[in-house]
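Please go through the protein record below and see whether the fold suits the sequence. Record follows.
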Amino acid sequence: MDNVIQAWNTAARSYAEAAEISQYARFCRKFVTQYFSNVNKLKILDAGCGSGEYTHILSQNGAAVTGCDAASEMLRIAREKYPAYSYDEVNLTEPLPYEDDSFDLVFCHLVLMDIDPIDTAISEFYRITKEQGRFFFSIVHPAFYRGEWEVDEQGRAVSKKVPAYISLAATEQNFWGTTMHYHRPISYYFNQMTNKGFILKEMLEPKVYEEAKIPDMPLYLFAEFQKG
């Protein structure tokens, strides 16, 4: 995991700058702001907080939020941009430094597909969530993410050719520097959650519109679980 953390330290600044202008990041910010509009006075862990955007959004919606991340450079940026909040340097693949039943909500946005393994993280998220508390995670949609877009005569991306789906795979990606992506099918994630004791409350596959691409294909998978 050390090489993964170092890769994100190297990519941190480019990632944070890209997130400020990305239409996909804007969509996610809008979604989270609306979905978690009623979190006043809740205690939330932003697990894998990156540059702190969602720590800020959830706090603005009234929650008491702690951000944590393994990449020190990400945390440096978070503290620069949003210095009012608390941040911990925490490796999600190891036991977490929080007491049992500490949080009303564990929020984990676009993180689990970037770490391996995830079983300790899920077990720890369950442990630190209060009874009847919630766990929310999002990932790039594993059914489509690895595929290559195919275009029509007008150059519009209309479909994806997916070479494989069921098998686990680790691949390098180079959007902000070289980082790792860990592909897992949806069943892998959901079995991890339910085997640890979480109960599925809602799964969402929202449309993300982009003029150059067909909108009727989900780019993200969002899911909310409850403890107990």
About this structure: The two ends are 31 Å apart (CA to CA). The mean pLDDT is 93. The chain has six helices and eleven strands.
